Each structure stands twice: as structure tokens, then as C-alpha cells.
Amino acid sequence: MEILTWTYILVGASFALYIGIAIYTKAGSTKEFYTAGGGVSPLANGMATAADWMSAASFISMAGIIAFSGYDGSVYLMGWTGGYVLLALLLAPYLRKFGKFTVPDFVGDRYYSNKARVVAVICALFISFTYVAGQMRGVGIVFSRYLEVSIEWGVIIGMCIVFFYAVLGGMKGITYTQVAQYCVLIFAYMVPAIFISMQLTGNPIPQLGLGDTVSDGTYLLDKLDGVLSEMGFHEYTSGRKGTMDIFAITLALMVGTAGLPHVIVRFFTVPRVKDARLSAGYALVFIAILYTTAPAIAAFGIYNAIDTVAGQPVDQLPVWVQNWQKTNLISVNDINADGIVQYTPYADTNELHIDKDIMVLANPEIAQLPNWVIGLVAAGGMAAALSTAAGLLLVISTAVSRDLFRTFKPNMTEKRELSIARISAAGAVVLAGYFGINPPGFVAEVVAFAFGLAAASFFPVIIMGIFSKRMNKEGSIAGMVSGLLFTMAYIIYFKFISPESNTVDNWWLGISPEGIGSIGMLVNFITCYAVSMLTPEPPIEVQEMVEDIRVPRGAGKAHAH
């Protein structure tokens, strides 16, 4: 069968499964809409958390970054995985014990202030919209190639699917949908990796294939270093980023992960504090399967791409290039008119331009794998993007309905709150679609900005809210505002106001916009501490509540304050 036929079958079957689950698990109460009724098993929650957390950036874009950046791309692996460990150990059990649905809910109660709650809502909306823009962009890329529609129409189709099951099922529908999506995305990621590892190195385990030899007896990474050096590129295994920038990006991604509202809320869907810890452990195992495979997929992809295109006649390019040229995500321009494709690191001589976001999706075609594998990867890419988009949309709708409306209308009925949550999710889908069509960068770059904003706004006030009884409402508000404004200003300046000056020579302390969230976090911490020391202590009942949160009676039921 043709690629298009396989894609329709596999993507269609997966969509039917997701929608069927959403209908079957429709939320009937606000508790089911926000936290799936608090009755999800740790194993299912671990799988759902992995799907929620492994977005289009992980599935589609991360291997693409590593493929084109080599060693420098490892910051995404270290930051995102390390951040998850930080979240599981430092935050999840304590927040679960506190017993609130959302991060703004925690901030509002812990800092005994509706102002702090509203600031936290604004931070959550900024982070979630920045993040969801990357997901919708991923959806558009998958649809544009495999269903042969424009990226704009791809985003619109994705919006309709997410709208249906996020608005209908809430967290209950999303949780069980994400369990199915994890199974689809991990199978779709591993099958081509195993195939290509066998092709290139004869080793069926991609993680080991990365360090194995190719047909001529040369180690794969040595061969890749040699090929890239001959073309004028830096060696694949050598880094160009400064130590400070690598540290800053890794730290921003780590603490940003720990402050992501759509991942934190997942730990409220299990019955007990002990289950929150257990589901975090399961999720880490499920995440590790994909993350340890990504470097191998990146190396296989760039090796095969260069091998099949660079130095080839322009009129005899392989079928995969012709297919992707239709999406405008690959372009070939014979600048010197010699009829041969020149691939160089210099803009005036480089004749091949490949969008970083297509490497994982194009990998099976480059390696000439069977058409059903290509269709499977399309279904996996959709699962990764949609699972995270749904989780983010739920955070947005919850922030508006529960944290904003209920703050000003505390006597609102549950039915009214559920209606507002669904209307908010619908509005969020439309806005997310707009950002998906007009993204401020490629998928992983956009997501890195979201992590930087989360690092600079949420992480310090959550961590100090748990571990410091002296931390008060004035400090939390000043910290969140200063951290968020500093980080946003830096990103907006270098990405939108003066993109031509976005070079290492102009960065403050040599830190790129992707890593500035780590400095924003320090600004937040310092401001929090200084302001809280100069203002009155929190009430005694708040200090006692903080003391209670810090005693994680793992086996007991979570207390709701």
C-alpha cells in the first residue's frame, strides 16, 4: 500500500481510539474534569505522565536538534530528564499532600493571597500558551507531509481533534487517552530506530548501535565526524556552545520541567501521596526508553541524509527529498549551477536546507523502510503532540475557570464552573492554533522558551513555599513578576526586537535566550527572599500548614487544606 493509505489507516485508527476513550470516560463533575476523580492507578498515571511530558518537542524535534547540533544538543537530554527527577523528588509528593488541583491554587492558599493566585494564573497562561504553540506546530508538520495538506490546515485539523476530547473528557478523558497515546508514540519511535540500527550497524538495540561500527568497520560516530569535517562543519561529537550557556540552558530546562503546571497537575490524579511517588518512578522509566534512543535516531538520521543527498546530482535526488519539498520544509537551490548538491555551513554556498523538525519524521523514508513504518511514525508524532496539547489546554481552562473565576465568584455552582472550563478550553484551542500557524521558532526552541518562563516564575515560589515557613505573599508576588518580566524581556528582545543581534557576542554573560530562564530564576529567588525579609511573617496557621506539608506520610491519604 501507498504511504498515504497507511497513514490514513494508522492515524485514523489512533484518532478513533482517542475519541472513543474520550466519549467513554466523559467527565461528569469538576473533580473528574480537573483530576480524573483522583482514582487513577500509579502505572496508568505514570504512562499518562510520560505521554503528557514527552511532547512534539521530544518526539519530533529533540532528535532533530541533536542531529544538527551534535554534542550541543545534549543539553535538551540532560535538562529535560534531570528536571523530571527534580520534580519527582522535590515537588510532586509535597504538592500532592497539599491536596490542591493546580499550581495557582497552591500559590493562592500557601501565600494566603488572591493577588498571588492571579499572578500565578497569568504565569501559567504565558507558559502554557508558549508551550502549546510548539505542539500545534508539530501537529501541522505531521499533517502537512502525510495527509498532503498545508501546515495551516494541518494545525486546524489538529485543533478540532484536541478540542473534541480535551473539552469533553477533561482530565479523566485525557488521562486514559494519554495511556493509549504513550503506547502509540513509543512503538512508533522504537520500530524505525531498531530497523535503522540493524541496517547500519547490524545491532538491533539502537542505544548500542550508536557506538557500533558501520559496514566498512569504522565506528559510526567517527565516520560522521569525518564526513562533517570534510564539508567544513564542526565534528558531530565536539561542542561549540560555551560552558556557561550549556550550564544555563540545562539548568533552565531542569527547573522549568519542575515548574511545568500541566505535569504537576498529573500527580493529583492518584489516590495517595505514596502513589504520586510511585507514578513518578514509572513515568521516568517510560520516558527513559525514548530519551536514551533519541541520540541514536539523531546520528542515524543525519548520517543517512548526508549520504543520500550531499554531492548527488540535483535532478536525481531521492524520493524522500521530493516528498518533503512539497511541504517547503526541505529546499534545494543549485547556487553555483553545477548540477550537484553542495551541503556546507556557509549561507552563500549551502544548497541544501533541511528543517530541524523533520528529521525523526523523515528518518524511515530516508532509510527506505516499509510504508507502514512511515505511517506509524506519523501516528506517533500526532500522539506526542496531541497528548501534551491536551494537558496544556486543560491547565489553561482550569486556570481560567477555577483559579480566576472562582476567586472572584466563590459561590459559583459546579455546573457553571464546568461550563466555563470547557469554554476556556475552546478559546485556548483557537489561540493555540494561531500560534501553531505563526510560531516564534522551531518546535523545541519554542518549548525551551516555555521551560525558561516556568523556571523564572513558578519554581522558586513553589520550592520556597514548601521549604520556607518565612516566605510570605509579598515576596512570592514580587519574585514571580520580576522573574517572568526579566526572562520575557530578554527573549522578546533577541527573538523579535533585534534578532540580528542574537549572537554569543551580544548575550549577557554568554547566555542564549534558551538559557536565560536560569538567570530569571535567580532574580526570582533573590527578590522573593529580600522582599519577604522586609515584610511581615506569614500568619501562624500558614506556617503550621507548611510544616505539615513537609512531613510526607507516604502511605496516608493526602490532606486537603
TrEMBL record:
It comes from the Bacteria. Keywords: Membrane, Transmembrane, Transmembrane helix. GO terms for cellular component: plasma membrane. The chain crosses the membrane at residues 6-24, 53-71, 77-95, 116-134, 146-167, 179-200, 246-268, 280-303, 372-400, 420-437, 443-465, 477-496. The keyword Transmembrane helix applies. GO terms for molecular function: transmembrane transporter activity. Pfam families: SSF (PF00474). InterPro entries: Na/solute_symporter, Na/solute_symporter_VC_2705, Sodium:Solute_Symporter. CDD domains: SLC5sbd_u4. Signal peptide: none annotated. Belongs to the sodium:solute symporter (SSF) (TC 2.A.21) family. This is Cation acetate symporter. It comes from Arthrospiribacter ruber.
